[in-house]
Amino acid sequence: MADSDWLADAFEEQRGHLRAVAYRLLGSMTDADDAVQDTWLRLTSADASKVDNLGGWLTTVVARVSLNMLRSRQHRREDPVGDSWPGAASAAAAAGAAATGAAGMADPEFEAVLADSVGLALMVVLDTLTPAERLAFVLHDMFAMPFPEVAAVLGRSTAASRQLASRARRHVRVTPSPDQAGDLTRQREVAAAFLAASRGGDLSALVAVLDSNAILRADATASLAGRPVELHGAEVIARGALAAAGRSGQSWLALVDGAVGVVFAPAGRLQVVLALTISDRRITAIDVIGDTSRLRRLKLALLPD
Predict the structure, then answer these.
(1) Taking residues 203-209, what's their average pLDDT?
(2) Alpha helices of 27-90 — where are they, by DSSP H?
(3) What whole-number distance in Å separates Cα of residue 90 and Cα of residue 114?
(4) What region, left, alpha or beta, does residue 267 occupy, with left being phi > 0 and alpha being psi -120 to 50 degrees?
(5) 224: pLDDT confidence band, cut at 50, 70 and 90?
(6) 226 to each of 74, 163, 220, 286, how far by Cα in Å?
(7) Please, where are the H alpha helices in the chain?
(8) Cα–Cα dist 224/163, whole Å
(9) Which domains does the chain show, CATH number per domain?
(10) What residues contact residue 172 under an 8 Å CB cut-off, 6+ apart?
(11) CB of 62 within 8 A of CB of 36?
(12) Of the spans 122-131, 179-188, 227-236, which averages the highest pLDDT?
């Protein structure tokens, strides 16, 4: 077998894993494939005979390429997009063999294999991290890369890389106090019931979780009418929720500024947040936020298990 054939075969064995890493880092299958292609080009221009661990070398390269793409994206102030939801991600984190088995599949099959372990809320929250935080968290916490190797990708010390991952971890996964945990559990039950009723088109169930004097405020970006809207009363709000029920299938529960809310993120891109105020197991207020500047100021996190 020619050296070029061996190199191509060796790269194909790693492709599934590389796409999984790049997708988690970039949140877009298109960008992930670009990063993987760039990694292949760099491999063909390198002396592979001097690489002791090809898989590790390729992972480091695709991570560096992805980091540069994240930094460029941030510099241009572009919003990350996830154009292949449900997308690829983390079966490869657990075992390289799983990714190798998926590598030869067509894109939809590949995504289906890996999608079960990817949460849309997680991808949305990852987009709120800095590029360095995201890389440290993804490589260490999701792909078990040792911190010295993470540090080499980032060009920082091992200690600094640990701090980045720790900061990202605190941002992504909130650990509430016992009192907060109980309150979040109650909020979660109410918010889940609201979302389920919206998805099911169940007017009576929606009314049941809304306070009779509830208020809904939507900014012009989030409103279907294209202007700020304010609704009063459980039934009026419930009917408005049904009118926007098309969004509910791509909406998920998440922590919004420390309280349970709903994020609408088609194709993995955050567009609308419902900030809920819940009292006595009823929703008393809903703030529907779609304005980009307001969304950027929100603190989003995954719900604790």
Answers:
(1) 95
(2) 29-44, 54-75
(3) 6
(4) left
(5) confident
(6) 28, 43, 5, 18
(7) 3-26, 29-44, 54-75, 91-94, 96-102, 107-115, 120-126, 131-137, 147-154, 158-172, 178-200, 203-209, 234-243, 292-297
(8) 42
(9) 3-172 (no CATH), 178-301 (3.10.450.50)
(10) 122, 125, 126, 129, 137, 301, 302
(11) yes
(12) 227-236
The DSSP code sequence of 77-92 is: TPPP--TTSS---SHH
The pLDDT-based confidence of 103 (bands split at 50, 70, 90) is: very low
Q: Is 270 helix (H, G, I), strand (E, B) or coil?
A: coil
- The residue behind tokens 């609408």 is 264
Q: Which amino acid, one-letter code, is at 11?
A: F
**CA nearest 188: which of 125, 268, 252?**
252
Exposed/middle/buried for residue 66 (C-beta within 10 Å: 0-12, 13-18, 19+): buried
Strand arrangement of the beta sheet that strand 272-279 belongs to: 229-232, 210-218, 282-289, 272-279, 259-264, 251-256, 300-301
User: Token pair for residue 237?
Assistant: 């709000």
Contacts of 112 (CB under 8 A, 6+ apart): 86
Q: What pLDDT sits at residue 3?
A: 63
In the DSSP assignment, the letter for residue 222 is T
Q: Per DSSP, what are the bridge partners of residue 273? A: 263, 289
CB-CB contact of 275 with 194 (8 Å): no
